[in-house]
Amino acid sequence: MLGFLASEGIEEYAMQAADFKPTKLALDGLTDHGARVQIEGDFKMDASKVEKQSVRNIGRFGTWLAREAETGPMDAEVYLPEYGDVLVGTARIPGIKVNIRNGHTTHVSLVAVVEPGSAEGIRSVAHDYIDGRLQQIRLRGRAEVPVRSGLIRLGKQTIEQSMVFHSGHVPALPKYNITKLNLREANHGRKGLGADASILVKNTFPPVSLDIPPVAVDVLIDGCSPSDKHLKVGTAETPELHIRPKTDVKLNVTGNVEKLADPLTEVCPNSAKSPLDAFIGDYMKGEDATIYINCCTFPDPATPNWARDLLRDITVPVPFAGKEMGNVIKNFSMANMHFSLPSPWAEPGTPEANPSISATVKVDIGLPNEMNFPLDVHQIKADADIFYKKKLLGKMKLDKWQHANSTRIKGHGQEGPSLLVQSEIEKAPIEIQDDDLFTEVVQALLFGGKPINMDMKASVGVGIDTPMGKLAIRGIPAKGTVPVKPIRGGKDHNGTDDGKSPMERLNLKVGDMAIVDTSPTSITLQMKSNFTNPTNYTATIPYFNINVLVNGTLVGSATVENSTVYPGNNSGTVVTVLWDPYTYGGIKGKDVGREWLSQFISGMLHQPCFPLSPLTLATGFNTSLTMQAHNGTIPSQPALGHLLSQFPITVPAPHMSTDDPDDSDPAPPSDGKNTHFIRSATMHILSSTALFTLFSPFKSTTMYLTSLNATAFYEGHEAGKILYHLPFAVPPGLSESPRLPVDWSFGSLGYEAIKKALGGQLKLNAFAIVGVRIGEWRETIWYKGGKIGANVRL
């Protein structure tokens, strides 16, 4: 303004002392080529800002003489030297008159017409700023200013000035807060999803007054990689916006998503998530996401074309603050659980070699209050880490989509709405990570009396039907605690816990036995079993092999194949047993096996036997069997077999009967008479012979008795002996022996008792050493029968 002062010192004084403080900047309206801008502010000369004293003195003196300065109408142009000196814009400024004496203030009010320059140049600067490449920006202003002071006209003075703004001086995007968000179905017959949002923007700018016409923008999110093109999600519109000085801006936005494009929901390469999954996942974890606003279209046809051209294709990244959803899964339960053991032919270490679980899963998912549109989950999958006592127990991987259905539940009071999702999951593999911890869990479930808690952290994927179509959202974080009841809780007749462990309630019963193979040391049997599964769980068993032990000595193995175990009573389960004490346990095993067979066939569970050998004295009369897993129990999962081996199960010897093996009653007869090998006997006094009715539990195999050394007793007194060395057959079921010679103990109390019972019956005890042959297998056992009903005939 002091160009009329020719002195170079006066020019320097003017540039340093001039001070203008704007008090109002307002958009006064749009024209076809630009905008009218109203500018108000206070101008004064401040000599204290001048650095050199000599210049300060000359300037104060000169401006005191001149008193006022006045400019005529002028055009001010602004260029960008570092962008090819492109023209940013031109401002047509009317003449102004100011007091230039030191310390005097002049209030300036004017309306300038601003016309934009190169739209491409302005967009280039905007893109560099948005992308963070703008470290500094240099502006060059130039104007031909007509100047006069009083009556003196000084002609046009050329004023040119350059200014550099560093990145720290360039204003950032203002902070904002979403005060209201409502997601709903689209209005007014439109398709898809609608959104209403109220946004409060902090106004930190100088005193600016601005009216912005209605604007529509595209809303985008990141693609699979930073180099990919941003993907459009939907559109948003704002009504006319009024910005006033020192007043925060309340912005009402209406959005609409008609249909999601395929690239939004397609899984990215080398990833398990789609771009939409990543965005929603970050939001629900409370992490900041980023949306992109692609500007702009103007619904109002009165908006001039220069504004449309200037703002076209400018994309602004906007931080989108995440909302921590907390425990999204409010409740998680599993019912009708079905365990499947892996196939024995699965390769160890592969997913197929893991046990799996099928179940009915119910998940109660808490929904934000903002979600007010129809939502239906039709499929689900998840990867879950399962923790026990804050230690990682295992991983459940449900990689394949499972069918699901959902029901929306209204919120009550402080409780927001929720979505109850139910799904039948099929064969989700479970990979145990800590065998020792799993052992602890199994012990707690089998022998503990209280529920245990499993903590779960999962990444959930859901397929949903929405107003904008079907889509899949993956990677939703979920966590929760699942209580697991102990595997016990049998009830007595009063309906209270009977206190028995699951093993005590197996109630094992076998029948319909058939020998399918023999060798000199072994018998292979197949039998049908009845037992009670005391748990609520179902299991599929493709192959399961366990060792069979007697008093800690390995005597054989048992195998179940292609079987399903249900809760409660199970009948008709086929078990293959290999009885080979010598191969499994050597000489000791052979002796233990012979002793056990003798006790088992005798059918006397808790009475002392005759001391035939030191082994008998050592073992006592015990017909229980111990079942114990081993590394080959499940060939594809040796670690699981080793783990199960730590829980050997000892059960009483299974009861034999000729009853239907599928009989639902697992209890043995109370009198035990249909379980004895010798059912009855007939003694012939004159011929000194005996005839026995025998019971063989085998289904189709004939057993041979190769030798017999037997003694009969009456109330502890010997009555007679049988020595017979000719083999005879014992076919399946009930049969009669040949007439066997009896050497009576004449004069004994036992023989006298037999004579007195002539024509009637009495109860005899018997003890025998018996040679047995079945196929290639041979063995010598002892037999003790108690209270055998003997008919006495001449």
TrEMBL record:
<protein>
    <submittedName>
        <fullName>Uncharacterized protein</fullName>
    </submittedName>
</protein>
